[in-house]
């Protein structure tokens, strides 16, 4: 399975990094410029160390990358975290970055697209954008960890969200204690 991971410039880039560590697939990574800045601000990780978690990396400005074309085969795409700016572009057909172009490819080719928005509070515009893409079959998985597994660390809260993303991709996982 080949999965495109987009990490955009919302708070919580650690969700994207943790997903890449847990995902059993060939990973194609695209990080926006702001995502790289936020990675440096929110974590002790270097951008290069995140690149090493991927099988292939393309710059967000590289519109010549294979994933910019619908003729290139990949199975699904996850944007995690997904800024509301990136949600807005996807919802309105704007493909001026590799990440938003690959998302547009998912929509036009009817491939699985998972968006993990991270914002609070949200405006009506943001809600409308999320609703618009949800109606097209996009999975909206907000970065909002559940507390019923009684997390004791931030990583456990991150892993809850990562587990729910993996559920969307059909990858069996035990990232968190499920309700039973
Ligand atoms: C430190 C920091 C945190 C941010 N957090 C969020 C956020 O949680 N959600 C969001 O929608 N935008 C957030 N933004 C704003 C986006 O980064 C901004 O809209 C940017 O243009 C998004 O571009 P991109 O989606 O191409 O990365 C944040 C910006 C900074 C600098």
Topology at a glance:
Elements: E1 2-7, H1 13-22, E2 26-31, H2 33-42, H3 47-51, E3 56-59, E4 76-82, H4 84-91, H5 98-109, E5 112-117, H6 124-134, E6 139-140, H7 154-169
Parallel strand pairs: 1-2, 1-4, 2-3, 4-5, 5-6
Helix pairs in contact: 1-7, 4-6
The structure holds flavin mononucleotide (FMN).
Flavin mononucleotide binds next to helix 2 and helix 4.
Give a structural overview:
This protein is α/β, with parallel strands linked by helices and 180 residues long. The chain has a single domain, classed as Flavin prenyltransferase-like (Rossmann fold), CATH 3.40.50.1950. It has 7 helices and 6 strands; from the N terminus they run βαβααββααβαβα. The chain has helices spanning 13-22, 33-42, 47-51, 84-91, 98-109, 124-134, 154-169, and strands at 2-7, 26-31, 56-59, 76-82, 112-117, 139-140. The protein has a 6-stranded parallel sheet, with helices on both faces. Helix 1 (13-22) packs across helix 7 (154-169) and helix 4 crosses helix 6 (124-134). The radius of gyration is 15 Å and the shape is globular. The chain binds flavin mononucleotide. The site of flavin mononucleotide has 15 residues, from helix 2 and helix 4.
């Amino acid at each position: 399975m080949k999965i495109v991971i987009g990490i955009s410039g919302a708070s919580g880039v650690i969700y994207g990094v943790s997903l890449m560590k847990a995902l059993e697939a060939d990973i194609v990574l695209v990080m926006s410029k702001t995502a790289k800045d936020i990675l440096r601000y929110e974590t002790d990780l270097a951008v290069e160390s995140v690149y090493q978690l991927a099988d292939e990396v393309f710059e967000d400005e590289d519109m010549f990358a294979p994933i910019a074309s619908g003729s290139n085969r990949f199975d699904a795409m996850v944007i995690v975290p997904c800024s509301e700016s990136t949600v807005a572009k996807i919802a309105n057909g704007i493909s001026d970055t590799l990440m938003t172009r690959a998302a547009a490819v998912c929509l036009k080719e009817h491939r699985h697209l998972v968006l993990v928005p991270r914002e609070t509070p949200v405006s009506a515009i943001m809600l409308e954008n999320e609703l618009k893409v949800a109606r097209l079959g996009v999975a909206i998985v907000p970065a909002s960890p559940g507390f019923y597994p009684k997390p004791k660390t931030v990583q456990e809260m991150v892993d809850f969200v990562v587990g729910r993303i993996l559920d969307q991709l059909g990858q069996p996982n035990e990232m968190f204690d499920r309700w039973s």
